[in-house]
Design a protein that fits this description.
heterodimer, A: alpha+beta, six-stranded mixed sheet, five-stranded antiparallel sheet, 8 helices, 20 strands, B: mainly alpha, MetI-like fold, 12 helices
């Protein structure tokens, strides 16, 4: 990782009886694209507001660029924020909005005009400088908010749900633009989002938050392939979770669906664990699968066609329920219908063992 | 609901307007009466407006009323806006209930009581009654109206706008003057105009709190009416109606302008 730009150390924040942020520590590198991901109410927005200076931590410290931010007001932090509502000043033109931060910094009128013109060009709104925010579309407002937030060349840009207000097509386009912009500007980005696709697509590292704490911190692949907890496993993508118990001789027994498998590392006998298997790692076939893997059989309960992907729910003969998905590649298994008898197979290496 | 009005509806509407505006219209029309008798129509004339210009007492009273109305309007607006901000921003501080009750008290208290209690205060403080006591009394009274109007606007104010200003480098005061105030300006102006007109209209509190040297226009009119209604009174009343109406229209136009000149294009 690059040199650390932001160091959050043991930060907690309470609102009355509720703990919004609970002893969180993390580092963000200079020029890194970082995402805070979690369901609403997990404390991700509070953590961002602590970094911006709108909230004061009850304990712990936040250091940005080597300076302790305790007691430093938002207007003196080398950080800018793009608000979820965009918070564009309705009484100012687009150009005045973008130039607002420069004016506060005491920049001369001519310099401001030149910088604003550059920024308008950067976000492709050259002709709209004199408009008022209420004369812009949602996508244009998002661009103005972005231009305004980067105008002061912050070391860290905070983005609160930056794409939430955009429609689906525009969201994907903007996602790539944000990534490009981040690479060009070499500013560290910290995105708060509840959308796992957004976080996985854009961020180099993701912190998954739950109830004020970080459940797991890592790259998109790491979080998806090797979730640390059942919460992360279920929050990121779809997953099958089975209750299992450790038996003697490094064997796990799963009740429904019924199968046994070997443990990669020894664990205490009788330990209750959860076994997690991604739906796309399970193969669905009409005929018997090849050996060397965990094989089950059952009946298709539902079959869902999503265009690029097909999803099935299969009830095994011993009462387990599994979700299976496959890319719509046009081969023989794609047309398996509801009610058909099927075989399921997956490798032991595709099973992730999680504490229960 | 958007269809044409039926005859019965039009009739009801006209009765409603007549109820509201006929007395005012009569005052205005009779102010142009050539006759000396108030109830007898003697043709059109502006002689009473001319007579008014020669009446130094009325002119002095009008000038005093305007001065007090303007100054108490300004002070009410500053204090009332500050009170509204405190009440909407600082949540449940200690003594909030007492604070808000005191702010809103003049609204529900009978004017006679307000006037009397202020009179007692000024007497206790041994203050000479006149212009300054009148100004203080009208400011106390006007600020509660400003607070109500501004508070209503602040309740719907998006706080992230202020946070955005702070985030972009503005100090708390800078954020207030550059972002908050321009956005709430229409209601601040409305509050000022309300305080201004209430001060201009007030008779009861003024009669308690002013002294011999400072007679306001409503007080002057009242004392003249006791000697008999003259067409001159109609003229001065018409001028007052005109002033207040002009102020209201001005405030309305100003608040529309503040809502963003370009905004109209977007909506068109």
């Amino acid at each position: 990782m690059q040199q650390s730009l932001v160091r959050i150390d043991g930060v907690s924040k309470h609102f009355g009886d509720t703990t919004a942020v609970d002893n969180v520590s993390l580092d963000i590198g200079a020029g890194e694209f970082f995402a805070l991901l979690g369901p609403s109410g997990c404390g991700k927005t509070t953590l961002m507001r602590l970094v911006a200076g709108f909230e004061t931590p009850d304990s712990g410290s936040i250091v940005i660029d080597g300076i302790d931010m305790a007691g430093v007001p938002p207007n003196r932090r080398p950080v800018n924020m793009m608000f979820q509502s965009y918070a564009l000043f309705p009484h100012m033109s687009v150009a005045a909005n973008i130039g607002f931060g420069l004016k506060q910094a005491g920049m001369g009128k001519a310099d401001i005009a030149a910088r604003v013109a550059d920024l308008l060009k950067l976000v492709q709104l050259e002709k709209l400088g004199q408009r008022k925010p209420d004369q812009l579309s949602g996508g244009q407002r998002q661009r103005v908010a972005l231009a305004r937030a980067i105008a002061r060349r912050p070391k860290l840009l905070l983005l609160d749900e930056p794409l939430a207000a955009l429609d689906r097509k525009l969201r994907e386009e903007t996602q790539f633009e944000l990534m490009q912009l981040q690479r060009d500007l070499k500013i560290a980005f910290m995105v708060v989002t509840h959308d796992q696709d957004e976080a996985m697509a854009m961020a180099q590292r993701i912190a998954v938050m739950r109830a004020g704490q970080i459940e797991q911190l890592g790259g998109a692949r790491e979080i998806y392939e090797t979730p640390a907890t059942t919460f992360v496993a279920q929050f990121i993508g779809e997953i099958n979770l089975f209750a299992a118990t450790v038996e003697r001789g490094q064997v796990m027994r799963c009740a429904a669906p019924a199968f046994t498998c070997r443990l990669p590392e020894p664990m205490a006998e009788g330990t209750a664990v959860s076994l997690a298997v991604r739906p796309e790692r399970i193969r669905l076939t009409r005929g018997e699968p090849q050996g060397g893997e965990i094989a089950l059989s059952g009946q298709v309960m539902d079959s869902v066609y999503l265009g690029d992907v097909k999803v099935w729910r299969v009830r095994t003969d011993d009462g387990g329920l599994l979700r299976v998905s496959a890319v719509n590649s046009g081969n023989g298994t794609d047309d398996i219908q509801r009610g058909e008898r099927v075989h399921l197979a997956f490798a032991e290496s595709d099973i992730r063992i999680l504490p229960r | 609901m958007t269809g044409t009005l039926r005859k019965r509806d039009v009739a009801i509407l006209l009765i409603g307007f007549a109820f509201l505006y006929v007395p005012i219209a009569l005052v205005v029309i009779y102010s142009f009466n050539a006759s000396k008798l108030v109830t007898v129509w003697g043709g059109w004339s502006t002689r009473w407006y001319g007579a008014l210009l020669d009446n130094a007492q009325v002119l002095d009273a009008a000038w005093l009323s305007l001065k007090v109305a303007f100054l108490s309007g300004v002070f009410s607006t500053i204090l009332g806006t500050m009170a509204a901000i405190v009440m909407s921003r600082y949540g449940r501080f200690r003594g909030r209930l007492v604070f808000s009750s005191l702010i809103y008290a003049p609204l529900v208290m009978p004017e006679v009581i307000m006037g009397l209690s202020l009179l007692l205060l000024f007497v206790a403080l041994d203050m000479d009654r006149g212009f300054w006591t009148l100004l203080i009394a009208h400011t106390t009274f006007g600020l509660c109206f400003v607070t109500i109007v501004v508070n209503a606007k602040l309740a719907g104010f998006d706080r992230s706008l202020e946070e955005a200003a702070r985030d972009l480098g503005a100090s708390p005061i800078g954020a207030f003057f550059q972002v908050t105030l321009p956005i709430i300006a229409p209601s601040v102006i409305a509050g000022f105009l309300l305080a201004f007109t209430i001060s201009l209209d007030d008779f009861v509190i003024a009669s308690f709190t002013t002294g011999p040297g400072a007679t306001t226009l409503p007080m002057r009119i009242y004392s003249q009416v006791r000697l008999g209604v003259t067409p001159e009174i109609n003229a001065i009343s018409t001028l007052m109606i005109g002033t207040v109406l002009a102020l209201v229209l001005f405030g309305f136009a100003l608040s529309r302008a503040f809502r963003g000149g370009g905004g109209a294009v977007g909506r068109a």
